[in-house]
Amino acid sequence: MQIQGSVTFDAPPERVWELFNDPEALRRATPGCERLDKVGEDRYEAVMSVGVAAIKGTYKGTIEIRDKEPPHRYRLAIEGSGSPGFVNIDASMEFVPAGGGTQVNYSWDVQVGGPVAGVGQRVLGGVGRWLIGEFFKKMQAELRADAS
Amino acid sequence: MATRYFGQPIKRNEDPRLLRGRGLYVDDVQLPGMLHMALVRSPYARARIRRIDTSKALAAPGVVAVITHADLPANLQGPLPPLIPHPTLKHHKTQFALAPGQVRHAGEAVAAVVAESRYAAEDAAELVEVEYEPLPAVVDMEKALEPGSPLVHEDIGTNVAAHYTQVVGDVEKAFAEADLVFEEVFRPDRGQAQPMETRGVVAVYDRNLETLTIWDSTQAPIRIRSGLAELYGMRANQVRVIAPNVGGGFGPKIMMFYPEEVLVPWLAMKLGRPVKYIEDRREHFFATNQERDQIHRVQVAVRKDGTILGIKDVFLYDTGAYIPYGLIIPIVASCTLPGPYKIPNYHAEFKAVFTNKTICSPYRGAGRPHGVFVMERIINRIAEELGIDRVEVRRRNLIQPDEFPYDVGLIYQDNAPLRYDSGNYPGLLDKLLKLIEYDQWPARKEQYRKEGRYVGLGLALYVEGTGVGPYEGARVHVEPSGKVWVATGVGTQGQSHQTTFAQIVAEELGVRVEDVEVVTGDTGAFHWGTGTFASRAAVVAGNAVALAARDVKAKALEVAANLLEASVEDLELADGQVRVKGAPQRAVSLGQVAVAANPLRGTIPPGQEPGLEAARYFNPPQSAFSAGGHAAIIEVDPATGMIKILKYAVVHDCGRLINPMVVEGQIHGGVAQGIGGSFYERLVFDENGQLLTTTFMDFLIPTAMEVPDIAIDHQETPSPLNPLGVKGAGEAGVIPVPALFVDAIEDAFSGYGLRFREVPLDPNRLRQALAEAGVPGAGSTAA
Questions:
Q1: B100: buried, middle or exposed (CB in 10 Å: 19+, 13-18, 0-12)?
Q2: At B155, is the secondary structure helix, strand, or coil?
Q3: What is the pLDDT of residue A55?
Q4: Which residues of chain A have a CB within 8 Å of the CB of B282?
């Protein structure tokens, strides 16, 4: 499943880059994220609780930031698994200057398996897009909160 | 004249019990102290297992045991026993009780959790931590054959399990002499049986008697009994397997062993307490065997009068991750393709291909719908190319009534020649055309078109190999009460054996059908046999029942002759008595005869066995071939892609009918499943081998709304191969449905050049195809 899009942030790429490398901001913005612990350089362990259709449950996994080119782009490698199945995400995030602000272009390649794939596939795309949308909305809020 | 029971539409013996909710299904078995098993299943289609940590699960409340492959005894660690070998099946890879370090399809069992309740077991199963190393999965069977493809079984260096070719006549010569040659590619996709009752196993070990009793929703209790006894190192008579009422089998329950069937009895012995496992519906989607996906590349050589000279069919069969059941499905597909037509030159070749998907084994039809789909599609193409009516092309190629026995020239699934025993195919076709009013169709179709409606007529013919050996047996026993008790080794999953077998006995012994009690599927009642599959029970077990009943009759006459001081020739069995012909007042009840055959004192003649009882076996020399034709008139709404079946007609020939109502019931159920497989049901896997359709929201099964009224006519060409002259009827309903379904839809849109090569179609696919073909109104609704 491919989920692509772009979101604008009202701050220059350097600031947005910083935000997108702040574990606390990322934890608060990620829907259902219960824990995000740094376990190494650009490596985190996370616990997330998400429901898709009738399949609700907790995923545990790792998040790695790779191929960093500050403040232009990085990749996120996310691996999570739990009773609802597993989620593997390879996401590219690009931070492009756009008239004083920053346009974040994202392309998420999401692989899902287990019950969540078999039961939830009909709504998975919608739920995925919604989760990602929520994430960016909250990141925008983080930026605003920080600025105020 | 004595009352006739054989051939009558007698109401079912089993219904009073089932309709009152008094049936016993596996989940109804409740035993004191019973534990419950839940399985941890792989979410990956292909992965190595790096580590399993069961400590948290073991510490969970109510948990009694958590088992992984490493905890199994040596006899359960290896691949489970293969079922049906074949000389060309080079790599007979079979499944495991629990995955040994590697998983090969999503849903494969990795660990078993046993707890005081199913709730506790399920909760604890979530606590089992399995670390997987995901590997690229083999999903597409064509890609599986490409060099460099990942391998499902790395040790064999290939994804090809078997490569088998059968040739009849001189195919090259046929193509050289043909007026018309064409090629087609057909793709029946994956589907699955959805019995109302999912799989289930309960086992209890009795330490006092040293016996293991297992309730299993299997179609083959005797084979399960024998196999488990061997696996556990026990005597066969220490293991009793009971397949009680089974809520639908349809083929997948003939498979052995499912991991649960091996694990549950072993756990019951190990833990010293009864253990139960009931599969849930979601598990059923990926843990119970599937079927149907094949890719046929077929070349056809035809004379300009429409006579088929030769067919070359080369196909791939997707067997999934393992191939326990062997090559039955592709062999049956090859052997069913010729159907009622004369194909003098025929090249049938297939490869069985491993993929990282659920195992395939026969599902009602077992390759027959594929063969018929290919053949009937070919006939339509010939009709189109040559401008001859599709019925006429069929007629010109039919085997004639005076050509039986007809040798197709192939070797069938039972390793015996594919030789049709009897039939009348032109007779079937004529009845079918009459039932569907084919002569009036052109005018009706024109009228529909004038009304702006898209309505088409589809039809298909088929021959069904039924009643394969090797044997079945039965014991018929008359009680002092005069009631008759019959036991046979086959299991019953809704086939009405309690009625049809009772009718066979009632006919022979002159007793009422309701006075004959038939026990099936209990190895404690009859312990030799094979199982219920391949439309064989009525043919093989039914004839064993008849032979045993005839022996009982002979003995009853002998014993009664002594009691009545009459000669055997002057006696008859009727109304539950043995009586003197023409003098019915001189009679003894069958119960009195039973008592006299097993006296407390006195004498019985030398050589006579005690009791009014006999056991007999029937071993058919080869399969008996049923045949039939279905036709349907289907209306399509091009805006939505939805269909409506306006009329459905079936003409069916399964030799002598034991109970026409039961045969019609079989046909109805088969047609319903055929409609599902033609239009509603598809298993969709993603590119990583994840099954995306594991609910009835996505895998649509037909309901009463989608199943039309079905007009049925019978033809009876008795089989010369068995005493009753019967042939099987279990799969007939499903076999031709995909073929006639697409035929009807093409006919509805004749002139638009639509040609369907895949099943199932579904409303989306159909609507898209209609839009692409430029059908007015198609795709006009918002997507």
A1: middle
A2: helix
A3: 75
A4: 115, 118-119
Does residue B43 belong to the interface with chain A, where contact is any CB pair within 8 Å?
Answer: yes
Domain-embedded: residue B389: yes
The C-alpha angle B77, B78, B82, rounded to 5 degrees, equals 135
Is residue B257 reached through a cis peptide bond, with omega within 30 degrees of 0 on the bond before it? yes
Q: What are B383-441's pLDDT values in tens digits?
A: 999 999 999 999 999 999 999 999 999 999 999 999 999 999 999 999 999 999 999 99
| Contact between chains at B690 and A81 (C-beta distance less than 8 A) | no
Q: For tokens 């958590």, name the residue.
A: B66
To which residue do tokens 């070749």 refer? B349
Element (H, E) at A93: strand A85-98
Query: How many CB atoms are closer than 10 A to CB A14?
Result: 13
- One domain for residues B184 and B201: no
What's the pLDDT tens digit per position in A107-145? 999 888 888 888 777 778 888 888 899 999 999 999 998
Q: Tell me: the pLDDT tens digits for B157-210?
A: 999 999 999 999 999 999 999 999 999 999 999 999 999 999 999 999 999 999
Where does a domain end: B563, B589, B618? B618
Are the C-beta atoms of B707 and B675 separated by less than 8 Å? yes
Residue B37 falls inside a structural domain: yes
Q: What is the value of ipTM here, to two decimals?
A: 0.86
Q: Give the pLDDT of residue B783.
A: 41
Residue of chain A with shortest Cα separation from B285:
A118
Portion 29-58 of A in contact with B at CB < 8 A: 57
CA-closest candidate to residue B300, choices B281, B291, B313: B313
Question: Any chain A CB within 8 A of the CB of B688?
Answer: yes
In chain A, whose CA is at the least distance from the CA of B283?
A: A115
The mean per-residue pLDDT over the stretch A7-31 comes to: 93
Q: Is the pLDDT of residue A148 over 70?
A: no
* Domains in chain A, CATH or no CATH each: 2-147 (3.30.530.20)
Q: Within a domain: residue B98?
A: yes
Range of the domain at B756: 422-464+624-783
CA dist B125 and B335 (Å) reads 45
Is the Cβ of A111 closer than 8 Å to some Cβ of chain B? Answer: yes
| B128 in the same domain as B39 | yes
Instruction: Kindly state the tokens that stand for B14.
Output: 């089993």
Buried b (16+ CB within 10 A) or exposed e, B491-512: bbbbbbbbbbbbbbbbbbbbbb
